[in-house]
Each structure stands twice: as structure tokens, then as C-alpha cells.
Design brief:
- Helices cover 44% and strands 18% of the residues.
- The chain is an alpha/beta fold.
- The protein starts with 6 loop residues before the first strand and ends with a helix.
- Bound molecules: coenzyme A.
- The site of coenzyme A has 25 residues, from strand 1, helix 1, helix 4 and helix 5.
Length: 165
């Protein structure tokens, strides 16, 4: 349908929101009418932050973007996309090493929901090295993480690590 509003979904674990994720969110928000950033459960990961904490981190950080909503979901990304009327899944690509995993997910998702396209945005060059795991590790070992994550997020990580100590 020509001119119909396009809803895109940006799923991720976001087990600490980084400037790399924010870069993808800001750019995707300019490409689509509505962007839903969704905190997913990735069965391969044991997150440091609860889904509610990750949702809150995102809400606090992207509140200035009017067409961006934050949600959490369980189950298949494609099923969630269909339930919110999203026709696009956005994923960020940092380096060649991301490609194989992302390609497999995109092909599986297309198999599950042929009407949903995966769109890849390349990470900005100054953020190619970022990952949530590395940022958590640097924080845990007392390094300065403020150039990798928004300041309120750095504060949330400090509090979480202090509570665990
Ligand atoms: N900048 C910085 N870091 C980035 C990034 C960017 N632009 N893009 C990705 N990353 C990092 C993340 O920080 C994360 O780091 P980590 O591995 O150290 O935690 C890593 O790259 C990938 O994380 P993310 O983008 O959050 O994806 P994921 O691999 O954790 O999650 C899901 C993938 C949630 C989308 C997928 O597991 C899923 O869809 N799950 C739902 C169940 C389902 O449908 N399964 C079938 C899938 S085919």
C-alpha cells in the first residue's frame, strides 16, 4: 500500500545500552515512521540487568525521539513483530564477524515470517569495537565507561556493580 506508515522493530538484549545501540536507534528513527526498540530474551545470555531495568535505561535515554517506543517481549521476534504490525526488523552490523550470525537470524526470520524484511545498518566507524560485554567488563574492572554509554547508564552500571560487591 503506497504511502502506508512503516513500523520497524529493533530487537536486542541491550544488557547495557551503548552509544553503538543509540546510533542505530537514532538513524533507524529517521528511516521509519515508527520504531519499536524491544528488549528480548536471548536464551544464550544471562543478563546482568532485568528486562525492566533494560527497558528503563532505554526509555530514559531516547525520550526525545517522538517516534520511538520501548517494549519488552518474550518468545519469537517475528511473532512479536507481527503482533505490533512491524514489517521491518532492524539490526546493526559492526564487523564481518557479525555477518554470519546476523545472516542466519535474518534467513530464519524470513522463513518464519516471509512478509518481514530484515534491514541492516552499519555501525558508525567509531563504534565498531563496542559490545555490551566489553563495556560491562571494563566497568567491573574499574575502567572509565563514560565514552561508551550515556552518563545515566554508566551510573546505573556503577550502582549495580556496587550492590553486587
Ligand atoms: N553498537 C554496539 N554494540 C552492538 C551494536 C552496535 N551497533 N550492534 C550489536 N552490538 C553488540 C551488543 O552490545 C551485543 O553485545 P554482547 O554480545 O556483548 O551482549 C551484541 O552486539 C549483539 O547483541 P544484540 O544486538 O543485543 O543482539 P543479541 O544477539 O543479543 O540478540 C536477538 C539477538 C535478541 C535479536 C535474538 O536472539 C532474538 O531474536 N531473540 C528472540 C527469540 C527468537 O526469535 N529467536 C529466533 C531468532 S532467528
Amino acid at each position: 500500500m503506497e504511502g502506508a506508515a512503516v513500523t520497524a522493530l529493533y530487537p536486542g538484549t541491550f544488557d547495557i545500552l551503548t552509544h553503538g545501540h543509540l546510533d542505530i536507534i537514532r538513524r533507524a528513527a529517521t528511516l521509519f515512521d515508527r520504531l519499536i526498540v524491544c528488549v528480548a530474551q536471548n536464551e544464550a545470555k544471562q543478563p546482568l540487568f532485568s528486562p525492566d531495568e533494560r527497558v528503563q535505561m532505554l526509555r530514559d535515554t531516547v525520550s526525545e525521539l517522538p517516534n520511538v517506543e520501548i517494549m519488552a517481549f518474550e518468545g519469537l521476534t517475528t511473532a512479536f513483530a507481527q503482533s505490533v504490525g512491524a514489517s521491518v526488523i532492524v539490526r546493526g552490523l559492526r564487523a564481518v564477524s557479525d555477518f554470519e550470525y546476523e545472516l542466519m537470524m535474518a534467513l530464519m526470520n524470513r522463513q518464519l515470517a516471509p512478509g518481514i524484511e530484515t534491514v541492516f545498518l552499519t555501525a558508525s566507524s567509531d563504534q565498531i569495537f563496542l559490545s555490551s560485554t566489553l563495556v560491562r567488563e571494563v566497568g567491573r574492572l574499574g575502567g572509565d565507561i563514560e565514552s561508551f554509554v550515556p552518563r545515566p547508564v554508566a551510573e546505573v552500571l556503577r550502582r549495580k556493580l556496587a550492590a553486587q560487591a
